[in-house]
Write a structure and sequence with these properties.
The complex is a heterodimer. In chain A, 0% of the residues lie in helices and 60% in strands. Chain A has no helices and eleven strands. By secondary structure, chain B is mainly β. The chains are: A mainly beta, B mainly beta. The interface between A and B is medium-sized, with 23 and 29 residues.
Chain lengths: 110, 117
Amino acid sequence: GIQVEQSPPDLILQEGANSTLRCNFSDSVNNLQWFHQNPWGQLINLFYIPSGTKQNGRLSATTVATERYSLLYISSSQTTDSGVYFCAGVNTGTASKLTFGTGTRLQVTL
Amino acid sequence: DGGITQSPKYLFRKEGQNVTLSCEQNLNHDAMYWYRQDPGQGLRLIYYSQIVNDFQKGDIAEGYSVSREKKESFPLTVTSAQKNPTAFYLCASSSQLGRQGATNEQYFGPGTRLTVT
């Protein structure tokens, strides 16, 4: 199966700062998602982004499928952005099996 | 209210007992999935089902069983054969690829925390 690497593993930001999270895949993917896991464990869908760029408020994501990576941008961070961010992808030809990275743990401080 | 429900939120069992976790969705999705999450880790796929009465093993199926008798429901049984059952279990669903407008984006339920002592 594919390997999914996320960086950095941990990130501490002051409120208002910007950050970029990265996700690398060992093989091509045709379904790529970014999630935010809140302190209660709920996985919240941020982006479905197999390729291209999408924006949603202070968050945006870019996937360069040919180079097998995706980036999540968080601008003007807030304390409510704290939690763990996961990317996950479906390897081309493996039906619906999402493979997750180990996540980036973000803490936003005042 | 459309969504995925899992019950119970917390579950405690003694070692050697089988336990069944519930997952229901009213999104009219064809595909459903079970994942396991251990502390500090990502999610790993246990089983998935793309259609009623059919399911496939994921990456860590040993010690688990599932059924898919109804489109809306995909219960997971953690058997006594599962060596380390204590974990956070998440259920997900998605539209099937091939349906008009379907993206195969997966949506998750709130999870069940299982503790076995």
